[in-house]
Design a protein that fits this description.
It is built from eleven helices and eight strands. By secondary structure, the chain is an alpha/beta fold. The longest helix has 27 residues.
C-alpha cells in the first residue's frame, strides 16, 4: 500500500516544479481594445501588468469597421476586452456583445454621467460616441479601465492605481493646454469645419463652434443642401481653413473648398486631424493625449491662433511618447 505521506510529498514536489501562479509570477493580463485611444489609455494605466492589442490601427474608421475572423480569434483570447460603445464600433459592436458571455467585456463609456453626453438629436437620441475629445469626460474611461484591470489582475492593484492617478493628472494638464491653444484663435474665427461630426465634445470643452460635413457616423451621406449651408457659413464668417481627417476620405472636404471658391472665398485645407483613430505608433500622435493636443495645435495655427508653449509635464510626457531625448 502506498504511504499517504509519500503521495503528499510527491504532490507538493510536483506543484513546486510546475509553479503555483502567485501575484509576482502572474503573467500580464491580455487586454484587447477596439480603438487606439482606448488601447493607449490602457497601456498608460496598466503598465507592465498588461499586454495590449488594438484591433483598429492608424487611419481606420471605427464606424465602418467589420470584425475579421482574426479579430474574433484575438477577442476570444482576451483576458479583458475594452470597447468604446455608444454605437462607435458599428458592426464590431454586435460581435463584442456576442462575446460577452465568454470573455470579460468592459465598455469604457458606461460610467460616464448621461447628462454629460452630447445628443445632437435632442433628449432620447443616440449620444455622440466621440467621448475621447473631452479630456475631463475621459477621466471616467480611465477609472473604468483601472477598475477592470485591478479586477482581473488584483496582484498589480497598487501600481495600476498609482499609474492611473498620474495619468489623470496628465489629462488635466493637457486639458488646460488645449483650452489655452483654442483660446488663442481670434473669437470670430473659432469655427471648426471637418469631414464628419467627431469634434462635438472638443468644441464644447474648448469654446469652439463645430460643424461636420457628414453626421456623427461616417455611415451617413452629406446632402447637397447641408454642404451649401456650410459654404454659406464659411463665407459669411470668413473662415480661413477647413480640415480633413485621417480616417475619412477627403472628397467631401474638397467639395466644400470648391464650393467656397465658387463664391469667391478662398478657404484652405488647414491640415489633417486625427479624429477617430490615433496616429502612427512611436509618435506623440500615436497616443490619445498627443492626438488631442496635436489636433488643437493644428486647428489653432490654421485659424490664426498663436500656440502657447506646452506645460513642462506635458512636453516631457509627449517627448517620451515620441522617443525624443529630454
Ligand atoms: Zn466618428
Amino acid at each position: 500500500m502506498v504511504d499517504r505521506r509519500a503521495i503528499l510529498v510527491l504532490v507538493v514536489a510536483v506543484l513546486a516544479w510546475v509553479g503555483v501562479p502567485g501575484a509576482d509570477a502572474a503573467p500580464p493580463l491580455k487586454v484587447v481594445a477596439t480603438t487606439g485611444m482606448i488601447a493607449d489609455t490602457a497601456r498608460s494605466i496598466g503598465g507592465p501588468a498588461i499586454t495590449v492589442t488594438a484591433l483598429m490601427g492608424e487611419g481606420v474608421d471605427p464606424h465602418l469597421y467589420k470584425a475579421s475572423p482574426g479579430d474574433v480569434r484575438i477577442m476570444s483570447g482576451a483576458g479583458l476586452l475594452l470597447w468604446n460603445g455608444l454605437h462607435l464600433e458599428g458592426r464590431l459592436g454586435d460581435a463584442i456583445t456576442k462575446l460577452g458571455s465568454r470573455v470579460p467585456v468592459v465598455c469604457v463609456s458606461d460610467s460616464m454621467p448621461p447628462d454629460r453626453l452630447l445628443r445632437s438629436g435632442g433628449a432620447g437620441s443616440v449620444p455622440d460616441p466621440h467621448v475621447w475629445f473631452d479630456l475631463a469626460l475621459w477621466r471616467f474611461a480611465c477609472e473604468r479601465i483601472r477598475d477592470a484591470i485591478i479586477e482581473h489582475a488584483p496582484g498589480a492593484a497598487d501600481g495600476v492605481r498609482a499609474r492611473c492617478a498620474a495619468h489623470l493628472e496628465l489629462l488635466d494638464t493637457a486639458a488646460g493646454h488645449v483650452r489655452a491653444v483654442v483660446a488663442s484663435i481670434p473669437a470670430e474665427r473659432r469655427l471648426l469645419v471637418t469631414a464628419h461630426d467627431a469634434f462635438g465634445y472638443f468644441g464644447r470643452a474648448n469654446g469652439l463652434t463645430v460643424r461636420g460635413i457628414q453626421g456623427l457616423s461616417t455611415d451617413s451621406e452629406a446632402s447637397l443642401r447641408e454642404l451649401n449651408a456650410l459654404v454659406d457659413l464659411i463665407v459669411e464668417r470668413k473662415v480661413p481653413a477647413v480640415f480633413i481627417e485621417s480616417s475619412v476620405p477627403r472628397k467631401t472636404v474638397e467639395a466644400l473648398v470648391e464650393g467656397c471658391s465658387a463664391r469667391g472665398h478662398a478657404v484652405t485645407i488647414g491640415g489633417e486631424l486625427l479624429s477617430d483613430a490615433v496616429g502612427a505608433a512611436g509618435t506623440e500622435q500615436g497616443t490619445h493625449v498627443g492626438m488631442v493636443v496635436n489636433d488643437a495645435e493644428v486647428i489653432a495655427r490654421a485659424l490664426g491662433g498663436t500656440v502657447p508653449a506646452r506645460p513642462a509635464a506635458l512636453a516631457t510626457w509627449l517627448d517620451a511618447a515620441a522617443g525624443r531625448a529630454p
